[in-house]
Amino acid sequence: MHLMTFIAVAQPNVFERGLVILAQGVFFNAFFVLYLFAPRTAHRLVGYFEEEAVVSYTAYLAEIDRGGAANPPAPEIAIRYWGLPVNARLRDVIVAVRADEAGHRDANHKFADALASARRTTRPSPAATTDGRLGGAQA
Q1: pLDDT above 70: residue 36
Q2: CA-to-CA distance for 76 and 74, rounded, in angstroms?
Q3: CA distance 14 to 20
Q4: Residue 5 in domain
Q5: Domain that holds residue 82
Q6: Predicted confidence band at 118 (pLDDT cuts at 50, 70, 90)?
Q7: In this predicted model, what pLDDT tens digit does every residue of 96-116 receive, in sequence order?
Q8: Does 2 fall in a domain?
Q9: Cβ 87 vs Cβ 61: under 8 Å
Q10: How many domains, the chain?
Q11: Cross-strand bridge partners of residue 134
């Protein structure tokens, strides 16, 4: 929804839209391969991307607040999706998107941590018996 919202804000031309689609296609395929072979790394990478998004949106908010960037009315798609007031501005949208990105960041780092934790979990040796003795010898 973030992409659709900012497409409504930026109103890219056909060439720019094509570049977005191309970039998404390249990223999707590269990420798919990464996730197949290293899901923990994939989640960590997304967590870092989301953190950079939070930093970028924070800088964007500062730019709007100092008057260096426009603060037009929020697009209808954003108002409906985030339940913003009908008189919401772009700044309100950015605050909502930044909160989403922070949630995504935390979730992806938790997934990466869970995968790392599962990997560290030791499993009993196949040679160990249920009573902890090796070799399965009976007394």
Answers
A1: yes
A2: 6
A3: 10
A4: no
A5: 43-118
A6: confident
A7: 999 999 999 999 999 999 998
A8: no
A9: no
A10: 1
A11: 128
